[in-house]
């Protein structure tokens, strides 16, 4: 041993290994800070598992500020590598020595299934490796005895989203952003020339990126490994593209996953798809292989807050683990941290290619998560242009409340999905009052082309809702237009209006139809579904704005109070704070007192004196009536002791603008399909129920609208129970250094 014997504090190491993925830095930051807060010594290993083999300066003690300002950076700041040495027993023996030199016997590994497998091999060999090191006189016996077990926790860093045991892998959401941005750009040029594009995306054996980007990018056809197309797929593909053109599409886009095959296991390449299209459609076809662009760039908002939760949980897992600890995969399920035995998750993941080979496509898709199979079917239905609908009902779609990015996506999916079920789909212009005025148009498949990724609301939305004296007019409008069912895509005001109309429904003959509300608001203040359509887009707008702000402010000593929307709901503020690494968040749910502000400013003065250059606080717009953003800034400036200046930044309506993110597009599509199916079933059963979208472990359900009164605090227009409030301890653990708390 070359260095001093370790202390008795737990010592942990964190490393990133295998392919890099955006969001790995957020994991590392959270692991380092959480572990320090929990009283552990923390080391970062540079260059992945190879760094363990090399030792020396590649294993570095990290402090609180070693991970300052890394969350917004792409890739991994501690480097990653593929290591041939670690595949050898000798390499792993050296790795064990280098860990013991520092008293480290707990590891958080962020990587793909290869890295996690390698680490588990290392863990199972650990006692033998220690015996060898003691025998060779390289490690004293008492040191080996003190560190008899290697504790490991894995976090999956992979853009492919290819791991069983977690809904999302770190980096997949960002990759989806890159792909969908590219498809949006290609779609606009393709439309100008009436051209077809074949887009090849990454994913190895996993079709997640291809399927979700096809949905979010409004593609015509997708080829994924889990669902190889039946023989004759070339004809089907060409037929679908022809039908789309006939229905008004100006461009065609086919997305091919890099691992796509036919049912005989023959690879389907993007070049083959191009040749088929060029020959049979006799038009200009271009191939775009996105390649490493998909891995690059700044992480999305989701790839900042979700990896932060995982890193926090992984650090606590290893710091508190006892000697009989079983290795865990720290993943995410329905927005919650979810632990799974590590190797069973890896093994189940590795079985998927076998399921595909055996032709068990359902099982292969099901292994990808509950929504994967649903989304394959939804995509097929909405991508296929329809003939005139027949035999179905008349279903109207209406918006209500504030604007939410993704409203257009939901209408597009509802129209196309509804038509695929034979229904006539109607769009109401100008919200409920437009309904009263009879501003109702039939929407055909081609009418909603291009709506998948456009911000705003083509149908228009308004905050004004019908008053009780207008209910009769609403009822007449529903009857006169022979509307059989109503899909309301909107926010709190729309939900409240539907609830209030439902309470009076027996008095109005037109109210006998089924109605369902689909949650669309940036505020995320609705009961039922946990992340409303539009909230992810708003969060990304916040994160982008704060990234710029940080860059501009780094040159001077400055504190910012950034005011974000959300009404009385602090979701955007808290998630914005977690995603941007803010030092403080002000929520209406917690309130703000003068004592809080005075503590805050004292801490700010101390930290600027100690060399800090930037302080970021995020304030929900309604956090406090008296301590407005302006008042807070004045108070901080007054008490700054000349150490820093203070600036307010009110983000305002840019949070509602912007094109919907892939997440909002995918969820808008999924929920719209669910709502149309539910309405269809209600029409057939003649039930006339009124509902809003709820969730059963992440699967959409329909909840009776009357229950809203119990679930929502109507004065504050927010749910009584808000799941994300449980994330406040993570914010507290990462924002302030323990000594300064
Ligand atoms: P990923 O972690 O992204 O799946 P790889 O499969 O390339 O990437 O694995 C990364 C590293 O993990 C490898 O370079 C190797 O050092 C280590 N590794 C993978 N599998 C094993 C194994 N069975 N035994 C030991 N080390 C392994």
UniProtKB/TrEMBL annotation:
In this chain the Phosphofructokinase domain maps to 12-315, 394-679
User: Sorted alphabetically, which PROSITE patterns does this protein's record hold?
Assistant: PHOSPHOFRUCTOKINASE
Keyword ATP-binding tagged: yes
What's its catalytic activity?
beta-D-fructose 6-phosphate + ATP = beta-D-fructose 1,6-bisphosphate + ADP + H(+)
The UniProt transmembrane annotation reads: none
Fetch the Gene3D superfamilies from UniProt: 3.40.50.450, Phosphofructokinase domain (3.40.50.460)
Query: What is the E.C. number?
Result: 2.7.1.11
Q: What's one Pfam family the UniProt record gives for this protein?
A: PFK
- Source domain of life is Bacteria
The answer to whether keyword Coiled coil applies is: no
GO MF entries: 6-phosphofructokinase activity
Pathway membership:
Carbohydrate degradation; glycolysis; D-glyceraldehyde 3-phosphate and glycerone phosphate from D-glucose: step 3/4
Where does this protein reside within or beyond the cell? Cytoplasm
Q: Which NCBIfam families match?
A: 6PF1K_euk (TIGR02478)
Quote the function comment for this protein: Catalyzes the phosphorylation of D-fructose 6-phosphate to fructose 1,6-bisphosphate by ATP, the first committing step of glycolysis.
PANTHER family reported for this sequence: ATP-DEPENDENT 6-PHOSPHOFRUCTOKINASE, PHOSPHOFRUCTOKINASE
Q: Which family is annotated?
A: Belongs to the phosphofructokinase type A (PFKA) family.
Which named protein is this? 6-phosphofructokinase
Q: What is the lineage of its organism?
A: Bacteria, Bacillati, Actinomycetota, Actinomycetes, Micrococcales
């Amino acid at each position: 041993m070359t260095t001093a014997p370790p202390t008795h504090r737990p010592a942990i190491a964190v490393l990133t290994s295998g392919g890099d993925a955006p969001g790995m830095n957020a994991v590392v930051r959270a692991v380092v800070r959480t572990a320090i807060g929990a009283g552990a010594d923390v080391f970062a290993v540079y260059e992945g598992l190879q760094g363990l083999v090399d030792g020396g300066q590649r294993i570095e003690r990290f402090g609180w500020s070693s991970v300052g300002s890394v969350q917004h950076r792409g890739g991994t700041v501690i480097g990653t590598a593929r290591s041939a040495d670690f595949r050898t027993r000798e390499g792993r023996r050296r790795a064990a020595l280098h860990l013991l030199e520092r008293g480290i016997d707990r590891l958080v590994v962020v990587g793909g299934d290869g890295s996690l497998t390698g680490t588990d091999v290392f863990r199972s060999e650990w006692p033998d490796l220690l015996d060898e090191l003691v025998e060779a006189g390289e490690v004293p016996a008492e040191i080996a005895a003190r560190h008899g077990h290697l504790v490991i926790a894995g976090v999956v860093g992979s853009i492919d989203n290819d791991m069983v045991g977690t809904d999302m892998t770190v980096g997949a959401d960002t990759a989806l952003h890159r792909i969908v941005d590219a498809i949006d750009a290609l779609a606009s040029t393709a439309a100008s020339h009436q051209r077809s594009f074949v887009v090849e995306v990454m994913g190895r054996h996993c079709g997640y990126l291809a399927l979700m980007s096809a949905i979010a990018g409004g593609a015509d056809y997708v080829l994924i490994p889990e669902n190889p197309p039946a023989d004759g797929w070339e004809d089907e593909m060409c037929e679908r593209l022809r039908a789309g053109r006939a229905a008004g599409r100006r461009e065609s886009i086919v997305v091919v996953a890099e691992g796509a095959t036919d049912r005989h296991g023959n690879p389907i390449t993007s070049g083959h798809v191009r040749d088929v299209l060029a020959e049979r459609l006799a038009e200009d076809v271009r191939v775009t292989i996105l390649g490493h662009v998909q891995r690059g760039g700044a992480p999305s908002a989701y790839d900042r807050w979700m990896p932060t939760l995982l890193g926090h949980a992984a650090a606590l897992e290893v710091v508190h683990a006892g000697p009989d600890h079983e290795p865990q995969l720290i993943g995410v399920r329905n927005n919650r941290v979810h632990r799974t035995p590590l190797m069973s998750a890896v093994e189940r993941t590795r079985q998927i290619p076998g399921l595909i080979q055996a032709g068990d496509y359902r099982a292969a898709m099901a292994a990808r998560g509950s929504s994967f199979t649903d989304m394959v079917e939804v995509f097929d239905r909405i991508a296929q242009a329809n003939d005139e609908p027949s035999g179905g009902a008349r279903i109207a779609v209406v918006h209500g409340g504030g604007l939410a990015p993704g409203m257009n996506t939901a209408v597009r999916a509802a129209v196309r999905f509804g038509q695929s079920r034979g229904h006539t789909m109607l769009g109401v212009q100008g919200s409920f009052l437009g309904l009263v005025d009879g501003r109702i148009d039939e929407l055909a498949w081609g009418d909603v082309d291009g709506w998948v990724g456009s911000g705003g609301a083509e149908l228009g939305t308004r905050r004004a809702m019908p008053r009780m004296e207008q209910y009769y007019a609403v009822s007449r409008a529903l009857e006169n237009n022979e509307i059989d069912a109503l899909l309301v895509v909107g926010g709190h005001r729309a939900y409240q209006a539907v609830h209030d109309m439902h309470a009076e429904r027996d008095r109005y003959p037109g109210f006998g139809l089924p109605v369902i509300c689909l949650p669309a608001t940036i505020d995320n203040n609705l009961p039922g579904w946990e992340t409303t359509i539009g909230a992810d887009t708003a969060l990304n707008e916040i994160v982008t704005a704060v990234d710029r702000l940080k860059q501009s402010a780094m040159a001077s000593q400055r504190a910012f109070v950034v005011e974000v929307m959300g009404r009385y709901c602090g979701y955007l503020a808290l998630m914005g704070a977690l995603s941007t690494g803010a030092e403080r968040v002000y929520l209406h749910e917690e309130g703000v007192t003068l004592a809080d502000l005075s503590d805050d400013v004292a801490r700010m003065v101390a930290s600027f004196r100690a060399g800090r250059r930037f302080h970021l606080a995020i304030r929900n717009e309604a956090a406090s009536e008296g301590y407005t953003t302006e008042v807070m800034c004045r108070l901080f400036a007054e008490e700054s002791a000349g150490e820093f200046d203070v600036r307010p930044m009110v983000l305002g309506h840019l949070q509602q603008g912007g094109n919907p993110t892939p997440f909002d597009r995918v969820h808008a599509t999924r929920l719209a399909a669910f709502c149309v199916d539910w309405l269809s079933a209600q029409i057939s059963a003649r039930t006339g129920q009124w509902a809003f979208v709820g969730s059963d472990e992440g699967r959409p359900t329909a909840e009776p609208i009357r229950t809203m009164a119990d679930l929502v605090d109507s004065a504050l227009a927010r749910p009584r129970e808000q799941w994300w409030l449980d994330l406040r301890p993570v914010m507290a653990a990462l924002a302030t250094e323990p000594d300064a708390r």
